[in-house]
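Saturday, quiet lab. Running sequence design on the structure tokens for the scaffold JK sent over.
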């Protein structure tokens, strides 16, 4: 059978310059001679691939560049399993640093094997930087009560993951909360006096919203700095990276409690900068370069220069599709090094909102390129128990990699992702003649539609069930939902689930990971159905005309099934960590349904 010429390939990230030549490699790739060459005239991660009928030649400036070339070659081999066309590729990234930031604190702490699989995925998409967000999920030797019962990462775990990253040219950068977001620490009787707020936190009821919104250190107490210093001194030496992210974001309570008078005299910005300088000093004294989130200094741009330096990187985050260029330009005008930090839009959701994530990531990537950002760090947070299972993060992860390498190209991304991540949709050798790739395979459409079915998320359920009148409390959204429209969404979620089940039959590898998509569809169908129960029994609204029949007993039964499936999927790839928080919330919801339907 004649092998058709293919002018386009499924590659992530898209290469900059690919030219197809006449002919094919005479031998299967596994048997062909492959020559590797270091060219000192090249620089960075630039590489080239030349495939002729008799051989394959890879050229790069360094072993890292050759590693990228081998990755592209592996993806080409997936595209053309029988014979590879002759071609030339000349490629290099737009961003020297292309990162992924993964929360291992607010819910799931992955197993070491899962983190290794994540590193392999990052390397496959040419991501060269990873951070794991830690508050209390590391086994600090002098604070066993901080992590007791939370199955944390250990020093040996970190060393093992770091070695694994080094071998795959991924820089594992330590990221430790050192100022705000110290909920578990400041609720311990031994340390609660270091809270900016003058409360007896150890006596308060555990609350996932309070963990997000409060618990900032008292900067005026010398013990606060000593605690942070000790944590850094134990954690930092475990990593080979030259960087250390001190975080210092969302210090919401600063100057609102014990330091209110000082904040009135000196300003909250002054309190912030003075304490951050001390933390940065610890990092520098240990030979590392500090990084920090940029949200607080953006509110006090006149103070940016006090934290700047050749060794400092500001992590400039914004997660909405409506993000503008202004914050990026502010840091450029200040003359500091910055990474733009978009997000996958999956936190606290059963399925990531893919469309919103892609818009946010692409805009941030373009703004960063325009205003000279040194890196793109794509974020994946775990708000409210991290119910967004890892497979739901892959699309955003890969899209961020695509945009960080080649800002100008995101055409046919869903097709490329479906093929390279899951091995479905066929290869371009099957699909295209003259480069006409399908614009969007069914899987991409399903993921986008599933994530957009509801803006209401698990954190909103948490606020509802705990009657927590906070930013997460969104019951007005439920009250305003049109029952007929809601019914159609329930029907559509069920259809998407059936389509995903059919798609799973085509998966050769990673079937168990793909089940996380199917679970997400089940959970969304269940939650949408729950809204009808709430409207009828809690808010006394008429839902009798809807085309679906939802009864409380079915919600309770299906909710138990969703919960049990979630527990199994969680335990397949993660430590027990904070699963109990999620299960408790599910159980309270089901009890609430029983109560309101029998009131």
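Result came back. Writing it out in full:
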């Amino acid at each position: 059978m004649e092998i058709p010429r293919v002018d386009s390939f499924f590659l992530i990230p898209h290469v900059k310059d690919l030219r197809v030549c006449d002919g094919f490699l005479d031998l299967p790739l596994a048997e062909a001679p492959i020559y590797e060459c270091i060219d000192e005239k090249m620089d960075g991660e630039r590489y080239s691939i030349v495939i002729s009928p008799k051989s394959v030649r890879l050229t790069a400036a360094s072993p890292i560049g050759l590693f990228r070339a081998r990755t592209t070659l592996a993806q080409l081999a997936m595209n053309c399993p029988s014979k590879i066309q002759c071609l030339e590729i000349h490629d290099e990234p737009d961003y020297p640093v292309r990162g992924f930031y993964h929360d291992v604190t607010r819910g799931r702490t992955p197993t070491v094997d899962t983190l290794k699989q994540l590193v392999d995925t990052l390397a496959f998409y040419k991501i060269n930087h990873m951070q794991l967000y830690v508050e209390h999920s590391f086994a600090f030797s002098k604070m066993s009560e901080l992590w007791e019962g939370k199955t944390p990462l250990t020093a040996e775990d970190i060393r093992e993951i770091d070695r694994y990253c080094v071998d795959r040219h991924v820089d594992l950068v330590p990221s430790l909360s050192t100022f705000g977001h110290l909920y578990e620490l400041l609720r311990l009787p031994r340390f609660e006096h270091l809270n900016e707020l003058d409360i007896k936190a150890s006596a308060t009821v555990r609350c996932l919203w309070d963990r997000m919104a409060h618990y900032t250190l008292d900067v005026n107490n010398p013990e606060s700095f000593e605690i942070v210093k000790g944590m850094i001194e134990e954690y930092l030496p475990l990593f080979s990276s030259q960087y250390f992210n001190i975080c210092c974001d969302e210090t919401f309570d600063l100057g609102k409690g014990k330091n209110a008078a000082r904040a009135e005299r000196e300003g909250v910005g002054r309190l912030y900068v003075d304490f951050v300088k001390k933390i940065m000093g610890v990092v520098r004294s240990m030979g590392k370069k500090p990084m920090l989130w940029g949200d607080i200094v953006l509110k006090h741009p006149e103070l940016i220069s006090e934290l700047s330096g050749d060794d400092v990187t500001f992590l400039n985050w914004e997660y909405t599709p409506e993000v503008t260029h202004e914050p990026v330009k502010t840091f450029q005008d200040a003359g500091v090094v910055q990474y733009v930090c978009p997000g996958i839009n999956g936190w606290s959701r059963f399925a990531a909102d893919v469309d919103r994530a892609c818009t946010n990531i692409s805009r941030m990537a373009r703004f960063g390129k325009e205003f000279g950002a040194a890196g793109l760090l794509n974020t994946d947070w775990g708000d409210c128990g991290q119910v967004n299972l890892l497979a739901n993060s892959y699309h955003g992860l890969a899209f961020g990699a695509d945009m960080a390498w080649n800002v100008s190209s995101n055409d046919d991304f869903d097709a490329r992702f479906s093929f390279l991540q899951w091995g479905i949709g066929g290869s371009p050798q099957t699909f295209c003649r003259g480069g006409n790739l399908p614009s969007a395979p069914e899987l991409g459409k399903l993921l986008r539609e599933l994530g957009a079915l509801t803006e209401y998320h698990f954190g909103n359920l948490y606020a509802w069930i705990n009657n927590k009148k906070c930013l997460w409390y969104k019951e007005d959204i439920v009250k305003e939902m049109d029952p007929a429209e809601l019914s159609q969404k329930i029907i559509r979620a069920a259809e998407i689930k059936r389509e995903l089940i059919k798609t799973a039959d085509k998966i050769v590898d990673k079937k168990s990971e793909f089940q996380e998509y199917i679970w997400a569809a089940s959970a969304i169908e269940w939650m949408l159905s729950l809204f009808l129960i709430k409207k009828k029994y809690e808010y006394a609204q008429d839902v009798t005309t809807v085309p679906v029949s939802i009864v409380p007993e079915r919600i309770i039964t299906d909710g138990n099934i969703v919960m049990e499936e979630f527990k199994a999927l969680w335990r397949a790839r993660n430590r027990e960590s904070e699963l109990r928080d999620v299960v408790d919330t599910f159980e309270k919801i089901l009890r609430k349904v029983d109560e309101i339907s029998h009131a």
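Notes for JK: The first strand starts at residue 17 and ends at 24. The chain is about 45% helix and 10% strand. Ask whether to fix the surface positions before the next round.
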